[in-house]
Structures are given as C-alpha cells and as structure tokens.
Design goal:
The protein is α/β, with parallel strands linked by helices and 207 residues long. Helices cover 46% and strands 20% of the residues. It is built from eleven helices and eight strands. An eight-stranded parallel beta barrel has the order 1-2-3-4-5-6-7-8, surrounded by eight helices. β3 (55-62), α4 and β4 (80-84) form a beta-alpha-beta unit. The longest helix has 14 residues, at 89-102. It is globular, with a radius of gyration of 16 Å. The N and C termini lie close together (8 Å).
C-alpha cells in the first residue's frame, strides 16, 4: 500500500516546505484543492520540479470539461488528477483520454456519491486508474462519522482504491486490511508538530 500526503496548505512556499519535510516517507504528493485554487497549476509544476521521482497528484475535483482540465494539469507536471464521481460519464472519459495521451492517470473521487460501490465499478470501467473513497473535512466533522463505512465500501467494490478521511496512526492498519492501494493522510501529517516524524510513523505502519 502506498502512502499519500494531502497537502491542504494554501501557498506554494508552504507546499514546498511540507513536501521537503515528508518526501522521504511518502509515495504520492497531493496538492489539495484549496492549494490549487489559491496558487494555480504553477504549484503543481513547482512540486514536480522539486520532487521529480515522486507521484504528484493534482486534486482538481473536476466536474466538467474533463479532458481540458486534465490536459492542463498533466502539462503542468501532474501524474494523477482527480475527477468527481458525481460528474457525467463523459467528463470522466474525457479526463481518461487526456491521461492516456500523456501516460498518466485519473482518480475518480467518490466524495458525496451515495452509492459508492456501484459508481466505483462504473468509474473503473470508464478507465479510472483507481477510485478514492473519500469523506471530506466537513463530513468528518459531523457527529458519528466513522471511517469504517468507507473501508467497507472499498472492500465491496473490488476495484483498485484509495481511502481519504481520517487516516492516521490508529486507523492506517485497518485501511490496509481493507485492501486499499493507497492511504491518504492529510491533517495527521500536516497538522502534526513534526510532519516528517508523523509521515515516517505512518509509512512504518504499512506492512
């Protein structure tokens, strides 16, 4: 299982600092949607140039113009881009077309999708590299939120998948047991007093 850091910071300088701290311990460096919106795709280029051997994920959460937005991100240096699972099939297919032209990948994010299992299978058939079972920060803040709902859906879907939404030192083992290909950790890394140490400990927990 790969470890992905979700950098939900807002500036290129913050992103470069965080990436430098954790790069030795993660496989995928994700530029969170707020970062991309605030700093633009130049942030993607900066991270890829600083860490050329790492997989760089531009979390665009594309909802329309799939081929165009994916093309822009791939040209900026992204290896992976995200498209929302709630988008039209043609949007996902368009992004996949751009990905294939650049030998890159599309991740379909199931945030907000009610029937995650069915949509995960559909996304995979449309050419997604993998799907992300994702609960956003707002959903995680609700009383009673439980990561196990995502893990159960991932197990049922039987497609390559990642999990995002509460991955930390106490939950990463359960993410791996569920069969996830990628564990996405955000706040448990960037919110730690020592992000490098936090990332190292998460990586060490993967067996």
């Amino acid at each position: 299982m790969k470890l992905q850091v979700a950098m939900d910071v807002l500036t290129v300088d913050e992103a470069l600092t965080l990436a430098e701290q954790v790069a030795d311990h993660v496989d995928i460096i994700e530029l969170g949607t707020p970062l991309v919106k605030n700093a633009g795709l130049s942030a993607v280029t900066a991270i890829k140039e600083a860490h050329p051997t790492k997989i760089v994920f531009a979390d665009l959460k594309t909802m329309d113009a799939g081929e165009l937005e994916a093309e822009l991100a791939f040209k900026a240096g992204a290896d992976l881009v995200s498209v929302l699972g709630s988008a039209d099939d043609s949007t996902i297919a368009g992004a996949v077309k751009a990905a294939r032209a650049h030998n890159k990948g599309v991740v379909v994010d199931l945030i907000g999708v009610e029937d995650k299992v069915t949509r995960a299978k559909e996304a995979r058939e449309l050419g997604a590299k993998y799907v992300e079972f994702h609960a956003g920060l707002d959903e995680q803040a609700k009383p009673g939120y439980d990561l196990s709902v995502l893990l159960t859906a991932g197990e049922k879907a039987r497609v390559p998948f990642s999990v995002a939404g509460g991955v930390n030192a106490s939950t990463i083992a359960s993410v791996q047991r569920a069969g996830a290909d990628v564990a996405v950790a955000g706040g448990s890394i960037y919110g730690a007093a020592d992000p490098a140490k936090a990332a190292k400990e998460l990586k060490a927990a993967i067996v």
